[in-house]
Amino acid sequence: MKIDGVPDAGSAKSVFEELPPNCTFENKHVLLIEEASIPVGVIDLVIGYPNSKVAFIGLLVLDEKYQGRGLGKRSYEALEDYIRQFSIDSIQLGVNDTNEIGMLFWPKMGYKLQGRTRINQGIKVTSNVYVMEKNLIPHVFHAPMILRPIDESIQPVEVVDGKVGNHFRSIY
Q: How many domains does the chain have?
């Protein structure tokens, strides 16, 4: 996805189609974030990347109208509970240094800066991409929250006490 400007349809489609090296769609999980049954965001997650004990968050984005209400934190906590079922030791993600909200948000969630990976050339902005990582503590569960698959024909996923009902993978 672009880091500067409004994403176009191709950028949104890439959330479903792009995979990191040596991964398949079995590794890919795309989750819809809802607030009061209203779609307000999306999470792109790859289990087993860059190695089998790591989950990689490719994207966690909320509609601007819903930011600043604690929904990002609650969504992330539900995602962390979801990830625990896969015997994962840590979670990684990349943050552009031009993403001021992300550079503040992720350390508040317990992420530590691991270093710069590359330079990202956007349409209007050039930025550094930094890898952040958090060790996943087993058996620490958060308040329940509903995460739904993008494909509405699949039943909702409810994460309660780290147990996932109606588990789903990618829509592929």
A: 1
How far apart are the C-alpha atoms of 129 and 142, rounded to whole Å? 29
Q: What single DSSP character describes residue 150?
A: S
Q: What is the pTM of this model?
A: 0.76
Total number of residues shown for the chain = 172
The DSSP letter of residue 66 is G
Digit-coded pLDDT (tens) for 74-110: 999 999 989 998 999 999 999 999 888 999 999 999 9
Residue from 32, 55, 39, 30 nearest 172 by CA: 30
Task: Classify residue 85: in a domain, yes or no.
Answer: yes
In-domain check, residue 3 = no
CATH number, residue 156: 3.40.630.30
In a domain, 112, yes or no: yes
Q: For all residues of the chain together, what is the average pLDDT?
A: 79
Cα–Cα distances (Å) from 30 to 61, 73, 111, in that order, read 12, 18, 21
User: What is the model's pLDDT at position 67?
Assistant: 87
